[in-house]
Design goal:
This protein is mainly α and 125 residues long. It is 78% helix and 0% strand. The chain is built from four helices and no strands. The longest helix has 27 residues. The two termini are 19 Å apart.
Length: 125
């Protein structure tokens, strides 16, 4: 990996982290939940992006939507656990279908951008 690709990759991950922090700042009720939500979203976005570089064949965007949707469900369930552990006050959470839709689209967009501009699919030998 040359320095130009390393810089592009670093800027991409930094923009992903900052976007998750901003989204969770306006979404969560306390600072521990802001950082927990951002860390969960960053990890699941990383999983979706990693999957995007391995998906091949036809209908890649559809397959990637399925991966992003599963990641969004995982995010919603992990936030439920984080809320239970933190005893967060009620309110300031979307209903689960809206939450899954919003974060599924967000994960999908970042994975498509990463697949298109930064991390190319691996070529079989």
């Amino acid at each position: 990996m040359n320095s130009r690709n390393a810089l592009k990759g670093s800027l991409f991950w930094l923009s992903l982290l900052l976007s998750q922090l901003v989204i969770n700042f306006f979404y969560q009720t306390t600072y521990p939940l802001i950082f927990t939500g951002a860390a969960l979203a960053l990890g699941l976005a990383g999983l979706t992006i990693w999957s995007a570089s391995r998906i091949s064949g036809s209908v890649v965007p559809v397959k990637l939507m399925v991966v992003a949707g599963v990641s969004a469900f995982m995010y919603a369930q992990a936030l439920d656990v984080a809320y239970s552990l933190a005893f967060a006050p009620m309110g300031n959470r979307f209903d689960m279908p809206i939450e899954v839709l919003v974060f599924g689209v967000l994960f999908w967009v970042f994975a498509v951008v990463a697949r298109t501009f930064i991390f190319r699919p691996q070529q079989e030998q």
